Amino acid sequence: MSEYPSLSYKQIINSLQRAGFIIVRQKGSHIRLQKRILYKVIKITIPAHKPVKPNTLRQILKQAEIDLETFKNYL
User: Fold this and answer.
1) Which of 30, 35, 37, 57 is deepest in the core (most CB within 10 A)?
2) Is residue 4 part of a domain?
């Protein structure tokens, strides 16, 4: 069993916004978020699916450079 939960895209976006990400745009069923950290910008794309699969969430958190425990604190 995967330790990553199966969440809706709204829950994921709300948690990432608490972590400092902002919504930049939406095109179709994909929402683009970004966060500026010193000299780099982290850009991630969230699929507007209910629910988002655990493996997809794992890849999103990897791109966002957030570990699972920190993400769970933002839920």
Assistant:
1) 57
2) no
CATH code of 16's domain: 3.30.920.30
Looking at the chain, the whole-number percentage of residues with pLDDT higher than 90 is 84
User: With the C-alpha atoms ordered 62, 68, 69, 73, is the resulting torsion angle positive or negative?
Assistant: positive
Extract the runs of DSSP E, i.e. beta strands, from 1-75: 22-27, 30-37, 40-47
| 35: containing domain | 9-74
Considering its fold, how many domains does the chain have in total? 1
Q: Are 31 and 9 in contact (CB under 8 A)?
A: yes
Look at the pTM and tell me if it is higher than 0.70. Answer: yes
3 part of a folded domain: no
Residue 6's nearest CA partner among 55, 63, 60 is: 55
Q: For residue 29, is it left (φ>0), alpha (ψ between -120 and 50) or beta?
A: alpha
